[in-house]
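re the bet — no i am not wrong, look at it urself. input seq straight from the record:
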Amino acid sequence: MSMRQLWEGTDARPWAREINGRTKLIILFLYAVLMITVDNPRTLFVLFMVTLLLHLTAGTSFYKWKVMAVLLMLGLWGSMVSQALFFSQIPRTPLFVLISPDMPVLGVITGGLFIYREGILYGAVQGLRAASMLSLGLLVCWTSDPRQLLNALLAWRLPPQVAFMLVTAIRFLPVLASETGEIITALQLRSDSQRGRTAVIQHIPYIAKPLLARCLRRAQTLALSVVSRGFFSAKVSQIRQSWRKIEKAGCVAFFIFTLAVVGSKICYVLSEQGVYFGMLRKIYDISKMYL
């Protein structure tokens, strides 16, 4: 599978591709609000598993699963390791000593370097937030045609120029990666030695100029194509994609659910500050257990 095919949604199941772009963007935004609101590790893990279940039902290919697994593991590992090393809140319990405070030079400079148990847990929570949004974002990218997202932004009366720039930015990185791969292949074929035909790192310094030239040519072609088709005219901006009632109802229901979660969390935080109402005791208990 090529780099460009990796980011296309042509292999997703029909029901996932047919969902309106507005529905996908609204759910993505509301899910981000939930990630910010929820602090309970178990609830965050459940929300993360929901995104993986959506990938399963949408028919994400095995190759894309592998790519997503690598990205998720790198994100979780980086978050947990960084927080385990540099966790500064109190209390904190050292599990391992990497650099002892008594060590000459390094111990004096750093004051000791430890791996903290609370830092690992905190990093796991933050990593679950990022992993959930990464997983859901990849799902939207892999099940959406650029025209879907473009029509969704235009339906919200966003200026066509701004909408086109946003959608182009989403698809720019895959194209950039594809162009980089082609340039590296060309450099390897031009190499005089056998080692140069298999090495990648030694060709990296020579990628920038041809990559910039190809990107400028592609941007010029794209600009001419957009202007010649009258994309920024008033008629094009009035085109709307039909939004099914069941999708509208689902967005409204998810919005109400998100609003209830945010409201419950606000009430619980206020109760900790002394603003307590006896009639909201059940809400406080639910928030403490699950949020």
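see?? DSSP finds 14 helices and two strands in the chain. told u. also The radius of gyration is 25 Å. so pay up
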